[in-house]
Design brief:
The chain is mainly alpha-helical and about 70 residues long. The chain has 2 helices and no strands.
Length: about 70
Amino acid sequence: MIPTYDIDNITGNLDIMFQNIMKIGFIFSIILLTIWMVVSLTIWLFRSQEEVRKSNKIWNKEFYNSLNISDNRT
């Protein structure tokens, strides 16, 4: 005898498995994103203030130099 097929379950429960994989992937990506944000903010909070001052001096110096150059040309 030929077996009959269940039309309601034509995918063979693959859709449920796919939904579970997507749920696990989403939760995993949210956890990784949260860990990355916490580590980044911790590094930002505890980094050396001397490095910050030094980089600010460099950026400010370049910015003011660009202003002076543009003023001298006019």
